[in-house]
Design brief:
two-stranded antiparallel sheet; alpha/beta; 14 helices; TIM Barrel; about 45% helix
C-alpha cells in the first residue's frame, strides 16, 4: 500500500509498538523490519498446543531481545496442564513469578479456559471458576496486568453467510471444528463473556486488557459500554482492525467517535505470528502490509480498501496525538516496564 504524504509523515514521526505478536522462532526478521519501520515488539506467551512450550516462548523472547537492537518485551502465562490437582494453583503462581523475574510485563489467560479445559465431570471450566481466584488476587495485589483472550469473534457463532469479514468466513470455512455455530455442546458466546465479566466484578482492582477488542469487535457501542463498566480495563486491536473498518463502511463517524472517546484505552497490535513457516522476506512483507494498511486507516480520512472487508470504507483521519496513544503510549501505560 502506498501511503498518502500525510500518513507517511505521521508514520515516520511516531515511535510505534506492535503490542500483540507471537515470536516463536529464534530469528530476527521481524526485528529487522521493525527497525526499518519504527516498530518494537511485545511477544505474548500463550498456552496454544501447536506453539512451543511457554518456557521456550519466554526463552525465545529473551534471546531476540539480546540479539538485535530493536527491543522485544514479553507477556508471561501459566499452564493449565495439572488444573484440579492440589498443587496446581501454587505451581501456576510460581510460573507467573518466574516470568516476571525474567522481565515479563503482564500475564495472559487464553480461550482454552472456557473452550477446552474440562473438570472431572466433563464440564467446561470457565474463567470465573474459583480455582483461578488466587491467581487473580495475586495479580491484583501486585498490580500486574492480566491480558485475556476469552471467546472468539461473534462471527464464530454465526452461519458463514452472516459473517461480517472475509478473514473469518475463510477461516471457519476451512476449520469447521472451530466454528461454534456448528457445535452446540460448547459454551455460548454470551456465556463465555459473562464469565469473564464476573471475574472483573469480583476483582475490581485487577488491571485488565480485553484482547481482540474484548471479543466485542462487532460493535463499537458494545466495546464502549464494556469500557465504561470496567474503568481499570483497556482493549487491544489485534486481528480486529478489520472489524472497525467493516463498521466504517456505513458508520465512519461512529467509529471515529469511539476511537477519539477511548483514545487512552486502545492498544495497537497485529497478532502476527512468526513460527518459521514463512521465509524471512515473506514474513517481512506480510507484517509491513498490515502495519501500512492499518496505520493508514487511522491516519487518513480517504476512501480505502482492505482484503478482508467486503466494501470500501472511509478512514478515520485522527490527529497525531491520538495515533501516538494508540500505537505507543497506551501500551507503555498499561504494561509498566515496556
Amino acid at each position: 500500500m502506498d501511503f498518502s504524504n500525510h500518513a507517511q509523515t505521521l508514520y515516520n514521526e511516531i515511535e510505534k509498538i506492535d503490542a500483540h505478536t507471537h515470536l516463536n522462532a529464534e530469528r530476527t526478521a521481524l526485528q529487522q523490519e521493525g527497525e526499518e519501520e519504527g516498530f518494537r515488539f511485545l511477544s505474548i506467551n500463550t498456552e496454544i498446543p501447536d506453539f512451543p512450550s511457554t518456557t521456550r516462548q519466554r526463552e525465545i523472547a529473551s534471546a531476540l531481545d539480546q540479539q538485535h537492537p530493536t527491543p522485544v518485551n514479553f507477556i508471561a502465562t501459566f499452564s493449565t496442564e495439572h488444573w484440579g490437582e492440589p498443587f496446581w494453583q501454587d505451581q501456576a503462581i510460581d510460573q507467573i513469578k518466574q516470568g516476571l523475574q525474567k522481565g515479563a510485563v503482564g500475564v495472559k489467560i487464553w480461550k482454552n479456559v472456557g473452550m477446552v479445559l474440562k473438570d472431572k465431570e466433563g464440564q467446561f471450566v470457565m474463567a470465573d471458576d474459583p480455582s483461578f481466584d488466587p491467581i487473580y488476587e495475586y495479580l491484583s495485589e501486585h498490580r500486574i496486568p492480566l491480558l485475556a483472550h476469552q471467546a472468539e469473534p461473534k462471527n464464530c457463532w454465526l452461519p458463514l453467510e452472516e459473517m461480517t469479514v472475509t478473514s473469518d468466513k475463510e477461516y471457519f470455512s476451512n476449520h469447521p471444528e472451530y466454528h461454534m455455530y456448528l457445535h452446540d455442546e460448547f459454551p455460548s458466546y454470551s456465556e463465555l463473556l459473562e464469565a469473564r465479566d464476573r471475574v472483573l466484578d469480583k476483582h475490581p482492582d485487577l488491571p485488565f486488557i480485553g484482547l481482540h477488542l474484548a471479543s466485542l469487535e462487532w460493535s463499537v457501542e458494545k466495546v464502549a459500554e464494556w469500557l465504561d463498566r470496567y474503568p481499570n480495563a483497556g482493549v487491544d486491536l489485534a486481528e480486529r482492525v478489520c472489524h472497525l473498518q467493516h463498521q466504517a463502511v456505513d458508520r465512519p463517524k461512529k467509529v471515529k467517535h469511539f476511537v477519539e472517546a477511548y483514545r487512552d484505552r486502545i492498544i495497537y497490535g497485529t497478532d502476527q505470528i512468526d513460527d518459521g513457516s514463512l521465509s524471512a522476506p515473506e514474513l517481512r512483507e506480510e507484517i509491513r502490509g498490515k502495519w501500512h494498511s492499518e496505520f493508514q486507516f487511522f491516519a487518513d480520512d480517504t476512501i480505502q480498501n482492505a482484503w478482508n472487508v467486503k466494501k470500501p470504507f472511509r478512514g478515520l483521519g485522527l490527529e497525531k496525538g491520538i495515533i501516538r496513544k494508540i500505537f505507543r503510549d497506551n501500551a507503555v501505560r498499561y504494561y509498566p516496564g515496556l
